[in-house]
Amino acid sequence: MGRKPTSRVLRGVRLPVLALGLLVLPAPLLLLVSLVTPLYVDRYVLYGQSGTALLTGAALARLTRARRTRAAALICAGAAVLALLPVTLQLRTPQSRVDDVGAIARAVAEAGAPGDGVLYLPARRRVWSLPDPGAPRGLRDLALDRAPAASHTLYGTEVPAPVVRARMITASRIGAVSDPARQPLDATPGEIVKRRVLATYFEKCGTRRVQGARVTVYARPGTC
Asked: What is the pTM of this model?
């Protein structure tokens, strides 16, 4: 029952038209929208590559209808699979991403001892802890109000800036998880307070750089 409306919409649409639309339209449309507000991210248009698969499948289907070209078509299909296999495998490695979330989670876990604090600068970088929520076990997330699961968000929610400041003041060591150098800094009250308290009451002990992030340990002056 649920498929009938879709079937009526697609009935009469030629496969090449549908495939070319999927392949060509998503990226330009998103680029045009990005002139108004920045939205373009390559993964948002990856589904358009299904148009390539449809066109390739249609071409192979046409070739295999003729006995003389059937073997050649199958050989071409096999060669295409073998040629694309290394690319497919490479896309599944941490190096294919701008950030290695596994390495970041391990670096956070190693940034301090139980009872030390941890901060995400900015708050949205808490998403790096999602692959292994137990990695920073024992560390106090000083800005956290409600965890991602409890708040039904990717980043969780944070307490107001004055509460963040009060919590940071009680800590002796803090692991700060942040973007790579020279990235724009968020100007929200909570992020400003985090940076200000670290600069005023703590000194930098060391920074560990992992793919896509920095984990910096701060301590009270003279205690590094």
From this structure: 0.63
